[in-house]
Amino acid sequence: MKKDKIIMLITIIAVITVAGVFFGVHYLMDAYTGYQREAQPAASAEQAEDAAVTQPVEQAAGGQQSPTYVQNQIQTVMKSPKESGVCGEDLKWYYKDRVLFITGTGEMDQYIYSVSSAPWYDSLRNQIGCVIIDEGVTSIGDRAFVDCDNMTEIFLPSSMTDIGESAFLRCSSLKEITIPDSVTSINKRAFSGCNSLTWIEISSSLEEIGPYIFENCSSLRRVVLPDGLAYIDNGAFKYCSSLMDVTIPDSVTHIGDEAFCECSSLTEIIIPDNVIVIGSSAFLNCSGLLKITIPDGVKRIEDATFKGCVKLDEITIPDNVTSIGHEAFCDCKSLTEIIMPNSVTSIGNGVFQRCTGLMEITLPDSITSISERAFEDCGNLREIIIPDSVTSIGEWAFERCDSLTEITIPDSVTSIDSWAFYDCNGLTEITLPDSITSISDCTFEDCGNLIEIMIPDSVTYIGNSVFYNCSGLTEITIPKSVTSIGNYAFGGCSDMTIYYSGNALDSYINSNSSDWSAQNIVWVKQ
Fold first, then answer.
1. Which candidate, 113, 177, 173, 167, places its Cα nearest to that of 142?
2. pLDDT value of position 301
3. Residue ranges of the chain whose pLDDT lies below 70
4. CA-CA distances (angstroms) from residue 161 to 1, 71, 139, 176, 185?
5. Of 133, 68, 141, 56, whose CA–CA distance to 99 is shortest?
6. 102, 130 in Cβ contact below 8 A?
7. How many whole angstroms separate alpha carbon 83 and alpha carbon 504?
8. Strands (E), 327-386
9. Domain ranges (residues) in the chain
């Protein structure tokens, strides 16, 4: 009798233990609330494993797999994991058959470059195809899934609030992802190099798209940015060469440096009125961009903001802009006309460099200098009026502006730097103001069609190679004020008569007499 009671007691304990294990695993799967359906009758582990293999995969909205699919994956892993370990103070991970399941509560560990790596990095990173993160997990650690280049799916819970720096760096097979609304922070380069990612829906709680988050996501075509977003940080979508559709919500106030740099498939973008800062190189080399409107709140167009936007043929600069940075519109080859408002007081170096379609431009009375290379290689620029406010013209400012035939430099200009009009082959005449005291080196070099120039009495020095190869110039008068002339000032010229007065140039003329003879240049003293 006693023996029978002992056997019965052992049997009861065994049944309770088996039932506890079964229902414990089943509860773990149901606890993943992000993918939970109506309760279904409990199935055996064998039935669930068969279902994972034989049941057709259902698709949820946004391309996400159905809850049944996710639960089956969890069940397969938890039945007999191939590998497992710890990835946070209260987090554990399990792996089997290309599926990594992370469960527990709280934050994931951080993995620091060259110091530590995720526990699955060395042996499993190239085998992981699907990552499922359980409800209760609140963060993904820095570099957690870096170089998991066969990962195609990631399922995030509604408890997730933070995605760490470089968390999915170079996950080159990941195609799409939905970031739950609970996420408030996505850190630097979180999805950088995910070059198969085509679609992403971003949490509505996010106020900032961090730096370089989607850099080099070269297949990304569409991004849904949430209302409430205030800041698009530096390089956020840099090198997203397939990006065609992005709507910036009205809440955005700041677009960072290089934010859309090299987004060559972007044809149009509407910048909302609340934006007050557009960073340098923000739209650099957006070669498909046709038009853009800069909002009134922007006060400065930064360096290289629209450089390389070769199809951009229309842009409006608002009245509040006070400065335009270096190379801001460089290589905008389709721009034909630009009107700058009177609010603009400075333009940077190379601001319209190589704008080969530009034919006319109106400079406001408010600017004081034309910077170096400002209009270099604007080969179709036919007319420009330099306002009386300008005091200086920088180096190479109008280099190779072949369509300019004449230009008047106002009396306000006191300095013209070297190569300012270098190789302006269309230039036939130019008037220099009485306010300049010297003509810098190579200023008119290779202006082969220049036939008339008046040098004012204020000039005391003519620099090196100033009129080099000005083959159309047949006569020139040098005023008495000039006391020094640089080397090769008239090199490459021939059949020219130069009129001068005074004795200051006698030694210069006599020391180069053989050159004048060879070039058939005659000096006539008046």
1. 167
2. 96
3. 1-66
4. 61, 22, 6, 19, 7
5. 133
6. no
7. 93
8. 337-339, 346-347, 360-362, 369-370, 383-385
9. 31-189, 391-526
CB-side exposure of 414: number of CA atoms within 13 Å?
3
d(CA 246, CA 341): 29
DSSP 392-431: EE-TTTTTT-TT--EEE--TT--EE-TTTTTT-TT--EEE
In 10 A of CB 234, how many CB atoms?
A: 20
Q: Which residues pair with 83 in a beta bridge?
A: 95
- Using CB atoms within 10 A of its CB, is residue 232 exposed (0-12), middle (13-18) or buried (19+)? buried
> How would you write 275-332 as a 3-class SS string?
CCEECCCCCCCCCCCCEEECCCCCCEECCCCCCCCCCCCEEECCCCCCEECCCCCCCC
**Fold agreement (31-189, 391-526):** yes
Tokens of 508: 């210069």
* pTM for the predicted model, two decimal places: 0.83
| C-alpha atoms less than 13 angstroms from C-alpha of 16 in its C-beta half-sphere | 6
Structure confidence at residue 65 (pLDDT): 57
Q: What is the pLDDT of residue 81?
A: 87
In the 3-class helix/strand/coil scheme, how is 253-282 assigned residue by residue?
A: CEECCCCCCCCCCCCEEECCCCCCEECCCC
Give kind and range of the element (H or E) at residue 118. Answer: none
DSSP string over 220-259: --EEEPPTT--EE-TTTTTT-TT--EE---TT--EE-TTT
Helix (H, G, I), strand (E, B) or coil at 385: strand
Partner residues linked to 370 by β-bridges: 393
- Alpha carbons 315 and 321: distance in angstroms, whole number: 13
CB-CB contact of 239 with 215 (8 Å): yes
CATH pick for 391-526 out of 3.40.1080.10, 3.40.50.300, 3.80.10.10, 3.30.420.10: 3.80.10.10
**Do 352 and 373 contact (CB within 8 A), yes or no?**
no
Q: What is the CA radius of gyration of the chain?
A: 36
Angle formed by the axes of helices 67-79 and 2-30, nearest 10°: 140
| Helix, strand, or coil (residue 74) | helix
Q: Where are the alpha helices (DSSP H) in 416-505?
A: none
Give the Cα separation of 154 and 133 in Å (integer).
Answer: 8
| Structure letter (DSSP) for residue 144 | T
165-219 pLDDT per residue, tens: 999 999 999 998 889 999 999 999 999 999 999 988 888 999 999 999 999 999 9
Q: Assign domain 31-189 to its CATH architecture.
A: Alpha-Beta Horseshoe (3.80)
**Residues 210 and 190 sit within 8 Å (Cβ to Cβ):** yes
| Cα–Cα distance, 502 to 498 (Å, whole number) | 13
Angstrom distance (rounded) from CA 213 to CA 210: 6
